[in-house]
């Protein structure tokens, strides 16, 4: 007799339906006997035919053959990161149903510091030889996305700030109040001035501020933004409202810059970034604007608007090649016998591209003017600019605008259609404005900082190493402000691994002529006097950026 049904319980849920039964690994007791026999005999078929019939379609053939040949052996080690050919094919497929994309695991509290430093940079970004110890490191105008500070002294003083200390740090930033710290702080955990200065160094200003969207970096960020909610993508009215607010904020920043109340600010678009600097910074007596990376189309549009600009990195490369060729020419001149013909060949001027757009009367003299197809004006222009087109999207494509042309550039960017993407995840999203000071429509943001501890390998064993990780768009003044705080707190000894935003590294090109040396006072721009002195110096890093910064006995060494 069947048991009485319990109240609130349906007897239909005692056994799974046939649809769920199909997902079982083993056949059910009521399945077909012939199918069960085939399923039982399937594990015994290890031949090539069975392997070919049951091969995983998402694995490469090489891995399948190696597994079939070496079945009793343990699984091989994972392929190296730099060898994509050794990785299985399924690793390159986009996951179809994953909620989150695969990401690198966050370091644990007791993780090895050496592992953190190895994951920070790729093997291709090998720093150059370190510099000699100096009291100050050069200005780095690239935007950093991550900095890892390491020291033998703990960073516990930088975490769990009190509400009063956090509020005091915000007030010091808004009032441009600078704190003078002693050379060494014996008890950083108990030093309120130190903790407030640390909070002050983490503040920056952003527009637009959308909490659910990562607004930096913008170049190559389509994959990060894809899938996020973008209500303005199909709403033209909303796009116009966003661009109207953005234009007001952009104009406000430029007015602050011309009044020397804002030292610099960044405009980060989907295709390029712009750095505006006030007069007196980077060794320039006039306001400057640097754009990188650029394309031939953008440069032609700027020329058509009457904006005068230069390509400093490209001109520097050409001057270096010309100097090396002249040195080679002098070497051949003093070489003795057999150098005469080489000198004559080297002394001949290179064929000019201007001959291409001249008259074709020589074809008429030969009587073949109707048989030979003459190049059109576009082909001639492209041949003239072939060297300029080759530098597109490269650091050498850096464009420098000086003086009153920066105002023309402002109007050009506001009305430029290519400033905002028309398709893709960033469609209709205005560029990101980053500034060290407040401006109209800007939102106060803070960098994310967290301290960790670990053990590092040394000769004879291990030692405790403490680290402080700072994430976010780290502007040039923030890097220098952090070093001013960490020097006294860590007793003049720490090491920093910096991860720059690569497209912004070209901003380290010198924007001023060598003979220009006019100092402009920027007392009310909100920066620390020492930070202002550093940013006023002419950049010396070229198209590279600092990747390793070390302080020892209060003296800096760095690698770029």
TrEMBL record:
Localization in the cell: Nucleus
GO biological process, one term: nuclear DNA replication
Record lineage: Eukaryota, Metazoa, Chordata, Craniata, Vertebrata
Low complexity composition bias: residue spans: 31-51, 78-87
Main location: nucleus
Name of the gene this protein is made from: Donson
Residues covered by region (Disordered): 1-87, 319-361
Keyword Nucleus: yes
Protein name in UniProt: DONS protein
InterPro entries: Donson
The entry's keywords: Developmental protein, Nucleus
GO cellular component, one term: nucleus
Acidic residues composition-biased segments: 345-358
Similarity field: Belongs to the DONSON family.
Matches recorded under PANTHER family: DOWNSTREAM NEIGHBOR OF SON, PROTEIN DOWNSTREAM NEIGHBOR OF SON
